Amino acid sequence: MTTPAKPEPAKSARANSEKDRVVIFDTTLRDGEQCPGATMTHEEKLEVAELLDDMGVDIIEAGFPIASDGDFAAVNEIAKRTKNAVVCGLARAGFKDIDRCAEAIKPAKRQRIHTFLSTSPVHMKYKLQKEPHEVYEMVIAQVTRASNYTDDVEWSAEDGTRTEFDFLCRCVEAAIKCGATTINIPDTVGYTVPEEYFRMFKTLRERVPNSDLARFSVHCHNDLGMAVANSLAGINAGARQIECTVNGIGERAGNAALEEVVMAMRVRNDVLPYWTGIDATMLTRASKLVSAVTSFPVQYNKAIVGRNAFAHESGIHQDGMLKHTQTYEIMMPEDVGVKQTSLVMGKHSGRHAFVHKLEELGYRLAGNQLEDAFVRFKALADRKKHVYDEDIEALVDEEIATAQDHIKLVSLSVIAGTRGPQRATMKLDVNGKAMIEECEGNGPVDAVFNCVKAMVPHEAVLELYQVHAVTEGTDAQAEVSVRLSEQGRSVTAKGADPDTLVASAKAYLAALNKLVARRLRGQPEERRLHSTDVG
Prior knowledge:
Layout: H1 10-13, E1 23-26, H2 28-32, H3 42-55, E2 59-63, H4 69-81, E3 86-91, H5 95-105, E4 111-118, H6 121-128, H7 132-147, E5 153-158, H8 165-177, E6 182-187, H9 194-207, E7 215-220, H10 227-236, E8 241-244, H11 258-267, H12 283-294, H13 315-323, H14 351-360, H15 367-383, H16 389-402, E9 407-415, E10 422-430, E11 433-441, H17 444-455, E12 461-469, E13 478-486, E14 489-497, H18 500-521
Parallel strand pairs: 1-2, 1-8, 2-3, 3-4, 4-5, 5-6, 6-7, 7-8
Antiparallel strand pairs: 9-10, 10-11, 12-13, 13-14
Helix pairs in contact: 3-4, 3-12, 4-5, 7-8, 9-10, 15-16, 17-18
């Protein structure tokens, strides 16, 4: 296979052109976490923030401090730990929001308050129940308040793309005059199209007298599948900050994907002559981490970081790739952290090869965690002819997720078939105590879940049960996703095993463990103020 010379990153070619630098504002921990079912634990938020900082993200929107004590604690701890990035907190127009936000980000080396207010007619009338002149005065008050705490203030016109333009111009001018250094015009409901978004920014920058004193920002949702295209259109119109999330997670259809906007500017630098400070080789690692902590799988055909992004099965494509990689690939896998070649893992692989493979996939395990993962790998290799990267990822993700579980699966046997009733016998370790139960059910999965309920009584409702194969073939591991809801709290978890029923039990127990952990912490589910989101 002929491999072309690796192109120099766009940043190298334009290192001296600051006017072409695009600031990356990551809101995975705020807007991304508000995606239903994507709530992260305190420790998971810190892990994601650390990776974002290492990757070169300019601004990390760490959360919504007034939303809950948990959100405040996470933002505050991220502010203490972050080395390079600006740490940002979100606040509504109310002074209590802004004060709480300022307190949360206070330990950060570089801090930003992001405050917002709805400006569209529909939001002002039905959500705020205020007249335009009242909203205008609120803009002045909120930005002035935030500016008392920091000289890095971002103001957002929520539902900006459905706002009357003259009023939008007035609000933007006032916000800048009161100290806002970044102006964000979000496409909150994913309504706009690239040409329209381009005109909006171009005209705003021309019409607002003091527009040269602030950086303009784009924040696009993907309801019509145009979040990335709209974001880049805004950049072409003079905006120089993109608000995005890893894997494009976020409310409804999600946000513009960080990995897509970064690589679009890098690969098509001829027509998008901009650069960022992102280390693109960490994009795949970031994608896998966010997918693991949110239990949101990345679709196989997802741009840049999907499993099939650099996979070729068509005979014509394979023939072209063997002759020259650029026949069917517009970027190098290594550019985004994907290894072009990999070890073939099987039952004869040793510990050294296993550790090397883990490092390739971005995992760092040690001690008992490594030993347990290796033992499980060998057991899996004995049952499967081929062990793929995805098998190992599923195995290790489960190992990490279950390390501190209060409830652990010891054994499971199921009797199923056309002759009912279906019956399951399960043994659990519940806080060190062995328990065993046998239950019938309306199908084998129901029987398995009934066993769990019998040994660990709970009122949680099963909202989602989903099965898919981790790899191809009849011996593929099954990956099961489960969402449980209890007293208004929802958790999502997954489990993997070559046996679908065992994977189902693992997923159900993983979700149940999350609920148990929250009860023990005595912390309510972090309630998101969905009706007041910027995006």
